[in-house]
Design a protein that fits this description.
Arc Repressor Mutant, subunit A; 13 strands; D-Maltodextrin-Binding Protein, domain 2; 305 residues; rod-shaped; 3 domains; 9-stranded mixed beta sheet; 9 helices; two-stranded antiparallel sheet
Length: 305
């Protein structure tokens, strides 16, 4: 006995439920001749007769009766599963898995994660904060935030804005140690370095480029600690202008060498595919884009006062 196709089973069940080939053809949107042919093919495939055809009505054979009840229950389960799946794709609910570098999350993202959860309480968040880059490629992750160079993969990137860096120090440090007038003078100063900038690459609009490589006084993988250290007068720090501006009321810092750019890194959201994207994922990315672009857009990324 050959295996019956799902399409043929659907036609058979519809014929019984609608009561005739003509009604089934209207329900399915196919010609009545196609309905009749599908039933004949199904009977040939199974090697038995399912229906007794007459000019007045259709009647199930005893075998057809048993087969109908078993198949109808199975097809109903499949259709229910399809409806549930479609609803989960269209309804903003379910689990959303997010990953981001610790630095970016603590600096810019975490408040917006909380705000999103307040606005969409039916969406559960699983947030993995890690500097382990390969975890971004995990198939179970819905959205990953990346600052800087993107991974070489088939993932799709949605840029949010640019993190433009600059040098800063406290008034206290500058009084004690003096203000550098050129990057060459940084070798005589204490530096505070943050992940992922293992070295500083300073660029000038005129095209000049200087690489700063020296052992820092403090090396830390989290920006707020670097801000606090700089505010206490422990050295010069290279941080995003937008981040320094966020903390200027509590930790005022003075910009240094404003004509030299400390770095420029694009912040992006990466995900696996544009096709069949669940609504909860699309809502989250739209939300984060709306919240972060005004902060990280080019017109807001200049020096803070």
């Amino acid at each position: 006995m050959q295996e019956a196709s799902l399409e043929a089973l659907q036609v058979f069940i519809t014929v019984i439920r609608e009561g005739s080939f003509t009604s089934a053809s209207r329900y399915l949107g196919i010609p009545a001749s196609t309905v009749s042919r599908k039933i004949s093919q199904l009977e040939k495939c199974l090697g038995c007769r399912l229906l007794i055809r007459s000019t007045r009505r259709l009647q199930l054979t005893e075998t057809g009766q048993r087969y109908f009840h078993q198949c109808a229950a199975g097809l109903d389960s499949i259709e229910a599963a399809n409806r549930e799946l479609q609803q989960s794709l269209e309804t903003p609910e379910g689990l959303l898995r997010i990953t981001a570098p610790i630095n970016l999350a603590s600096s810019f993202l975490s408040p917006h994660f909380a705000d999103f959860s307040v606005e969409w309480p039916t969406i559960r968040l699983d947030i993995d904060l890690t500097n382990d880059f390969p975890s971004f490629l995990d198939q179970s992750i819905d959205v990953a935030f990346v600052g800087g160079e993107l991974p070489d993969s088939d993932l799709i990137a949605r840029p949010i804005g640019r993190l433009r860096y600059g040098l800063y120090a406290s008034h206290h440090y500058l009084r004690e140690c003096g203000r550098p007038e050129h990057p060459d003078q940084l070798s005589r100063h204490d530096l505070i370095m943050t992940w992922p900038l293992k070295e500083w690459r300073l660029t000038h609009p005129g095209g000049a480029f200087i690489r700063v490589q020296q052992s820092p006084r403090i090396n830390v993988n989290e920006m707020f600690t670097a801000v606090i250290a700089a505010g206490r007068g422990l050295g010069i720090v290279n941080l995003p202008h937008a981040y320094v501006a966020m903390h200027k009321d509590k930790v005022p810092l003075t910009p240094l060498l404003p004509e030299w750019e400390g770095a420029c890194r694009t912040l992006s959201m990466i995900y696996h595919s544009r096709e069949h994207l669940p609504r909860r994922v699309r809502l989250f990315m739209d939300f984060m884009q709306e919240r972060l672009h005004p902060v990280l857009g080019d017109r807001h990324s200049g020096h803070s006062g």
